[in-house]
Design a protein that fits this description.
The complex is a heterodimer of chains A (282) and B (232). Chain A is 31% helix and 22% strand. With 282 residues, chain A is α/β, with parallel strands linked by helices. In chain A, β8 and β9 form a beta hairpin. Chain B has a single domain, classed as Beta Barrel (Porin). In chain B, a hairpin with a 4-residue loop joins β5 and β6. The chains are: A alpha/beta (282), B mainly beta (232). At the A-B interface, α7, α8 and β8 of A face β7, β8 and β12 of B.
């Protein structure tokens, strides 16, 4: 390739990066997953509390990637109708709440999530860190990125921070510790998926060794499911006894797979079941 | 088992002086934050039984974490067009993590070439089959819930070549014992120093970017190794 072409290609890449709303310096100097998790576990942040539900029968929805943009559109309005129709008790958002984490987008998604009208939990995604103050805004609005919530003394929801595409040493140790407790049905909720079918691309958790370690921990401690976002759409794989979900997205525009939707968990008769609910756009 | 018989025969040929054999021993370290941190000891051999056929095999052992056998590999290459170094290679790899009771079997098909002096390139596919639980140690498990196909690639440049030593840098998503997945973008640098006609010292350093699918890339793993290679 000639030097002119290299220069041209470099200019195009530079222009593309400058043209987006990402704060490139902010991204480069952001707190990484290890920094965020240490802050999460320091006790300085308020962990979201348990939600009040009927302990014998309740349901909750899980989805990722609301990814609110300049036009503030999402499928959350349509989801609000689903909540009313199906009597969903609470929901979990698996990161990428905004496209570029600008102040307007952060405020808009917070408002739209509140408007759904039921309790919710959130964890962080890579898009939520596309500004220098992305982490500050996230924890101000939603609390820690890595925490545990128990529901009705039956279900343990384990929220992990995988926004960097990896867990990091502190979170790995903490994760194993919280998985050890065998008195709950354990559901892991995070941004990055571990598996994605037979012909996957790069939208998954880091290295082979990391994925193998995660799966062996899930298997050893009898986790029920790993629920993720990042890929926009619905995907399901069962690896051994563990269900791996890419839980559906509420993002505007064309999704990677199918329509917007969410994963609906129902607890009844002492067991947890799941189904994917697809929705028409808006 | 199909591959063990020819490997045994070729080793026998080598030991009786009917094939060129280059055994090597390496010691190394592999670390990945929060995942593993271990020492590696590997023994391998490159065998050239006849012109246009390359065979290599090796075993790698882990120390301090996931102790014991860590990886095994056997590869058969056929040189399709010598002036370009065009080589079709079929590799079978087994990797295991004893503490986690997990393993992975892989078969790699690659096409490698050195079209320009100093550069070598490769493209290929790998079928990987992770195995969890009781049979994690078996290299004979070739189906599983999490099996997948990944692309492989390589481009390396030997940027310094002197009479007794050379240095190379580039990226390669596969080597004798490993095949990186699409979430990783691996970089490596290696070199060798020839002590005498038969003995060469080798060293290699590798790392990989992760998280780039989310625009938040970071270097994740570190692999260092050094060893000696003997030709007879």
């Amino acid at each position: 390739m000639g030097s002119r072409r290299i220069l041209l290609l470099g200019s195009v890449v530079l222009l593309a990066l400058c043209g987006c709303d990402w704060d490139l310096w902010g991204i480069a100097t952001r707190p990484n997953v290890e920094d965020r998790v240490k802050e999460d576990l320091s006790g300085g942040l308020t962990t979201p509390g348990p939600v009040a539900v009927n302990p014998d029968s309740f349901s909750f929805a899980v989805f990722g990637d609301v990814q609110i943009r300049h036009d503030y559109q999402s499928s959350l309005g349509r989801f609000q109708q689903e909540v009313a129709e199906r009597g969903i008790d609470f929901f979990c958002v698996l990161g990428d709440l905004t496209e570029d984490a600008t102040p307007d987008e952060v405020d808009s998604v917070k408002l739209q999530l509140e408007r759904v009208g039921i309790p919710y939990y959130a964890t962080i995604g890579n898009h939520d860190l596309y500004q220098a103050d992305g982490w500050e805004r996230f924890k101000e609005n939603y609390g820690p990125s890595c925490y545990v919530v128990t529901v009705a003394g039956r279900i343990k929801l384990i929220f992990l921070d995988t926004a960097d595409g990896t867990l990091g040493p502190t979170q790995f140790d903490w994760f194993e510790e919280v998985l050890r407790d065998t008195s709950y049905t354990k559901v892991v909720l995070t941004h990055f998926p571990v598996f994605d079918g037979e012909k996957p691309v790069m939208w998954r958790l880091a290295s082979d060794a990391e994925r193998v370690k995660v799966q062996s921990l899930l298997k050893r401690y009898g986790a029920f499911a790993w629920c993720a976002g990042h890929i926009h759409g619905w995907r399901h794989m069962q690896v051994g006894s563990v269900d791996h979900f890419t839980s559906g997205a509420m993002a505007p525009g064309v999704l990677d797979y199918g329509n917007p939707g969410y994963l609906l968990f129902t607890f009844a008769r002492d067991s947890l079941s799941w189904q994917f609910v697809g929705m028409e756009w808006r | 088992m199909l591959l063990k018989a020819p490997a045994f025969l070729l080793t026998l040929l080598a030991l009786t002086g009917h094939a060129a054999v280059m055994p090597s021993l390496t010691l190394g370290y592999r670390g990945e934050p929060g995942v593993e941190s271990k020492l590696l000891a590997a023994a391998q051999a490159d065998i050239l039984p006849v012109s246009y056929v390359k065979l290599d095999a090796g075993l790698s052992f882990n120390l301090f974490q996931n102790n014991g056998l860590g990886a095994a590999a056997l590869a058969l290459g056929a040189v399709a067009y010598d002036p370009l170094g065009l080589t079709l290679r079929l590799t079978v790899q087994h990797q295991q993590w004893n503490d986690w009771r997990a393993g992975e079997n892989r078969v790699l098909a690659t096409l490698e070439a050195s079209p320009v002096y100093g550069f070598d390139a490769g493209l290929g596919l790998v079928q990987r089959v992770p195995v969890f639980g009781d049979r994690y140690w078996s290299p004979l498990v070739w189906s599983g819930d999490a099996s997948e196909w990944n692309c492989l690639y390589r481009l390396r440049w030997r940027f310094i070549q002197r009479e007794n030593w050379w240095l190379r840098a580039g990226f390669s998503s596969y080597d004798r014992y490993t095949a990186h997945n699409p979430q990783q973008f691996p970089f490596e640098a290696d070199g060798a120093y020839r002590l005498n006609e038969d003995l060469e010292l080798d060293a290699r350093a590798g790392t990989a970017l992760v998280g780039f699918s989310g625009g938040l890339a970071s270097f994740h793993e570190v692999e260092l190794s050094a060893g000696a290679r003997y030709g007879f």
